[in-house]
Amino acid sequence: MLPFYIGDDDPAAKRHILRAAMKLFSERGLAGTSIRDIARESGYTNPALYKHFASKDKLAVHLFEICHQRLWTRCSAAIEAETSFDAKLEGYIGEILELVDEHPEAMAFLSDSARVLWPKAGATVRRHTMIALARDLMSLAPRARRGGRAVNPTIAAASLQGTLAELARMLQVGVVRGPATRWKSDLVALFRDVSP
Questions:
Q1: Stated pTM of the model
Q2: Which whole number is the average pLDDT over 71-90?
Q3: How many CB atoms lie within 10 A of CB 15?
Q4: Fewest CB within 10 angstroms: 55, 82, 99, 103, which?
C-alpha cells in the first residue's frame, strides 16, 4: 500500500523522492533538510529531483498540500457520515488517530511545517482548514454546560486540534505508548461535553 501522500499515477522516481523528502522533513524539519539530502536519501541526483520539482520549497509545498487535503477529506467524510454529535466527534477523532498510526511521518510533517507552508499553499487547500472543520463540529455539541459557562466553538476546536497534535508528538517521541487509536475513547470522552 502506498503512503497517502503518493499518487497511484506517480512514476517510480517521484515516489522515491516523495518518500525520501517526507522521511527527512519529518525527522529534521524543513530548514534542516537540503535538496542534496533528499537526493542522497532517494538514490537520485539533484537534476533528477528537479525534473519533478523546481525546488525543495515546491517539493515541500506539494507534500503539504497532498497530506492536508487527504487529511481534511477523510475527516470531513467521517463527520458527514454520522448524524449525532457524539458519532461525528468519534469519527473525526478516530480518523486523525488512524492517520497518526498509519502515516506518523506525514502527520508530524503537517503539524511541524504548517506555520511555514500554510501561506504558500494553494487557494483550494486554504479553503479547507482543519480548524474550520473542527469548529463546525464543535458548534454541533449539545447545549450541556461545563462549570456553568458555555465554551466558544473556536476555542473548543483549537483545544481539540491542539490536543490531537500534541498527542501525535508525544507518540512520535515515545512519551506516550501507542497505537494512537488506543486513546480514542479517552479523547472522545474529554471533548464530548464541551458546549458551544
A1: 0.89
A2: 95
A3: 17
A4: 55
Query: pLDDT tens across 145-163, in order?
Result: 444 566 788 999 999 999 9
Please state the φ and ψ torsions of residue 146, each to the nearest 5 degrees: -120, 115
Residue type, 111: S
> Interhelix angle for 56-80 vs 85-102, to 10°?
150
Label each residue of the chain as H, E or C: CCCCCCCCCCCHHHHHHHHHHHHHHHHHCCCCCCHHHHHHHHCCCHHHHHHHCCCHHHHHHHHHHHHHHHHHHHHHHHHHCCCCHHHHHHHHHHHHHHHHHHCHHHHHHHHHHHHHHHHHCCHHHHHCCHHHHHHHHHCCCCCCCECCECCCHHHHHHHHHHHHHHHHHHHHHCCCCCCHHHHHHHHHHHHHCCCC
| Cα distance between residue 191 and residue 137, in whole Å | 11
Residue 101 in grid coordinates: 498510526
Which residue has cell 459557562? 149
Please choose, from the candidates 65, 154, 55, 69, the residue with its C-alpha nearest in 3D space to the C-alpha of residue 118. Answer: 65
Where do we find the cell 525520501? 20
| Cis before 3 (ω within 30) | no
